[in-house]
Design goal:
heterodimer; A: about 475 residues; seven-stranded antiparallel sheet; five-stranded mixed sheet; 13 helices; elongated; B: about 260 residues; alpha/beta; two-stranded antiparallel ribbon; 11 strands
Chain lengths: ~475, ~260
């Protein structure tokens, strides 16, 4: 049996903000399993409560009295065998209504058809309008219609409304569950000063938290660790996970890797782990496509790589909207989950042109003259790659007749030498209108600190056979090696 | 007697889990133990290799500066990402040019870029400061190991082209063996870029690049007032490919054009 507690919107108290939670509190005084269907309508499951509170009349009276004690008046209370019947009766009849389970259909038959609007509070029930045009006025008339004919005319929605009119439930009860914060704290008897004992404590804290997450079909989006130190300070680390996770071992590993990169400055007295939940991540695997790495794997890998190589040294490169040489941005690496099609070999957009090494060359596939095209990713000819020095290497360059004839640097393995062939210059400049943070001690620092750039680029072949890109900073007149063409 | 010795040897290797480190030419000729392949983006090379680089093995592309190693690497990354695969690049000395990859058509959203030590004056490749270089190589090897263990990538590239030969010689053989062991049996192609052969696994492929006819690059308008760099032409030789009989010593021509925006 179930009971329905309904507060009519037209009551003197009305339904104010916050009344929904108050109504749930009232219902919980009478039953542990409560479903909130609307701000002014809650359902209570009464199974097994008879021995505690008496028969159904006593239960109904208790629910009504509890609501009145909480300041809700007037209230409608209905007790029936199904939730649908209880809701319809509570909406239609004031006071306390008790209907035995076997008499629900007969009792509901007399109720007006518009009572069904309680199941569609936004008025989206178009089928009810159709029933009204058919001349149906009561729930009994709708319940008496032949199901096959009703389905043929209105579809499955018509059958659903007919089941509700008969007092039959369409879905199970969904009880309200308290949203307790996903947080756990552990006070240590002795301070912990290393990661190994800390990992055991983290495991003890994370396992029940992850069990709760799994029961609630949630996963961690942000993982926070608050460490109370012996110095009375609180050391906090927060990890924004790239994908929702609820594996305790993975979360513990991520926390330990982060603490390895950011050591705790003192001994730890108390540990608090807090998780911001998010709906669980559901992945539908495909039989025809190769499985992508799991989010747990990617998160752990990125954390390990970050601990090894340093923060912001791992990610996915992104081009930026700038003509500045070497400009790029780093984005977090995410596994792209879209419809993938594995192309057959040889049908990809870009490839390096190649031909079997025969004595004759295929002249029809000769070079596209340099400097006459913008690279097209669909082109059958690839582009030459550059190995770019993030900070250009200062060079000493001899000039003759306006072109470099010798390039030398202080770098071991990059001594330079005589220029055997050359191309250029390409003059580029930009962002000279930006105000930069000019400063620094060396020429290179000054060059880096300037917001804009203005330079002449050359490609030169040096004595070691390598092709280098060098440039002259036109403002300072200094030369630099920017990279190696490879 | 030789058959018994061979059986004993194979049993010993199997007991030590090293049975995949040796490849029998007979078995390869019979078409067994031939793994799947990852296309390189060069149709002629893929044709010569029977589809591309073998999966589950560590291959290498070696050659001198400006021989087209990086161009081949970027072309392969573009091909693999174009097929929907994830690609990881361990850039030991942080020299990867993103604009080049964009121009080559690499889907950067499928690319994990691990940036090593910045090759700057503050981090010189000086003989007196080899410790820093060795540290960078060690970190790059560890990062490659982590990526291979994590799995899920179709291509993992370790770029050691700027590493001095002396530092690479100090890398223990067991390190390469560990990488090869991790890679075995995975649907992933391992690729090492370097100056000289160093790390190919038993079933991997060694591709050696040399500038074509000993000249560096192609130059347009030479003799004129403003000659232009036109691109690279190299000869790519398949030096070793034990799992692919009849492939070794074949060569293809690699051509890549200079980009001008």
């Amino acid at each position: 049996m179930v009971a329905c507690l309904f507060v009519p919107p037209s009551s003197t108290a009305g339904v104010r903000a916050g009344d929904a939670s108050r109504l749930i509190d009232v219902a919980r005084r009478c039953s542990p399993r409560v479903e909130a269907r609307a701000a002014n309508l809650v359902i209570l499951e009464l199974e097994g409560l008879e021995r505690m509170f008496g028969d159904l009349e006593a239960l109904g009276a208790r629910v009504c009295q509890a609501a009145r004690d909480a300041g809700f008046a007037p209230v409608h209370v209905a007790v029936a065998g199904t939730r649908a019947a209880a809701m319809l009766l509570a909406v239609a009849r004031p006071g306390v209504t008790i209907v035995p389970a076997d008499a629900a259909t007969e009792t509901l038959a007399a109720l007006p058809l518009r009572t069904l609007l309680v199941f569609a509070p936004d008025g989206s029930a178009q089928a009810l309008a159709v029933f009204a045009r058919w001349g149906l006025r009561t729930l009994g008339q709708l319940a008496a219609l032949p199901a096959a004919d009703l389905s043929a005319r209105v579809g499955q929605a018509g059958l659903l409304w007919q089941r509700l009119a008969r007092g039959e439930d369409a879905c199970p009860l969904v009880p309200v569950v308290d949203e307790k914060p996903f947080e756990a704290t552990h006070e240590l008897e002795w301070p912990v000063e290393s990661l190994e004992p800390l990992s055991f404590v983290l495991g003890r804290l994370l396992e029940p938290l992850c069990q709760r997450l799994e029961r609630r079909d949630r996963a961690a989006a942000v993982l926070s660790l608050h460490l109370r130190l012996v110095t009375r300070e609180t050391y906090t680390r927060s990890l924004e996970l790239p994908a929702p996770l609820r594996e305790p071992k993975v979360l513990r590993t991520l926390l330990l890797l982060d603490l390895e990169s950011h050591p705790v400055p003192a001994g730890i007295d108390a540990i608090t782990v807090a998780i911001e939940p998010t709906p669980g991540h559901i992945i539908q695997e495909s039989l025809l496509e190769r499985a992508l790495p799991a989010p747990e794997q990617v998160s752990t890998l990125l954390a390990r790589l970050g601990a090894l190589m340093g923060d912001r040294r791992c990610g996915s490169p992104r081009p930026v909207n700038s003509h500045r040489p070497g400009a790029f941005a780093m984005a977090p690496f995410r596994v792209v989950e879209d419809a993938r099609t594995v192309a057959p070999v040889g049908e990809t957009g870009v490839r390096v042109r190649a031909s079997v090494d025969l004595s004759r060359r295929d002249d029809s596939r000769a070079f596209v003259p340099g400097g006459t095209r913008i690279p097209d990713p669909r082109s059958p000819i690839s582009v030459v790659a550059l190995r770019r020095f993030r900070l250009p290497i200062p060079a000493r360059v001899l000039i003759d007749s306006g072109r470099p004839i010798s390039v030398r640097t202080e770098r071991q393995g990059l001594q330079g030498g005589r220029v055997l062939a050359w191309g250029g210059p390409w003059r580029t400049s930009g962002e000279w209108w930006q105000v930069g943070s000019a400063g620094g001690t060396s020429e290179l620092d000054r060059l880096r600190g300037r917001a804009g750039w203005d330079r002449d680029e050359w490609e030169v072949v040096l004595g070691d056979g390598g092709i280098y890109r060098v440039f002259e900073d036109r403002e300072s007149g200094r030369w630099f090696v920017e990279g190696i063409v490879d | 007697m030789p058959a018994a010795c061979r059986t004993n040897l194979e049993a010993l290797l199997r007991a030590r889990k090293l049975d995949r480190t040796l490849v029998s030419a007979d078995r390869a000729a019979q078409g067994r133990n031939v793994p799947g392949t990852a296309p390189t983006g060069l149709p002629a090379l893929d044709q010569a290799l029977g589809g591309g680089l073998p999966l589950g093995h560590l291959s290498e592309v070696v050659g001198p500066r400006s021989s087209g190693r990086t161009s081949l690497m970027v072309a392969m990354m573009a091909t693999m990402t174009g097929r929907g695969e994830l690609v990881a690049l361990v850039d030991s000395f942080d020299v990867f040019a993103v604009e080049t990859a964009v121009a080559a058509g690499v889907d950067l959203t499928r690319c994990l870029w691990v940036r090593g030590e910045t090759c700057t004056p503050a981090f010189p490749l000086l003989a007196s400061r080899q410790t820093g270089t060795e540290r960078a190589i060690e970190r790059a090897l560890k990062a490659t190991n982590l990526i291979l263990q994590a799995g899920g990538f179709g291509l993992v590239v370790l770029d050691l082209a700027d590493a001095p030969a002396r530092a690479l010689r100090r890398v223990p053989f067991t390190t390469w063996a560990r990488l090869q062991r991790v890679l075995e049996g995975r649907e992933c192609a391992g690729l090492v870029i370097g100056n000289a052969p160093m790390s190919r696994s038993a079933g991997g492929v060694s591709l050696v690049l040399e500038p074509d006819a000993g000249r560096a690059g192609v130059w347009n308008g030479q003799g004129g007032p403003t000659p232009m760099f036109g691109g690279l032409e190299s000869r790519l030789q398949i030096q070793r490919a034990h799992l692919m009989p009849g492939v070794a010593d074949r060569s293809v021509r690699l051509t890549a054009a200079a980009q001008v925006a």
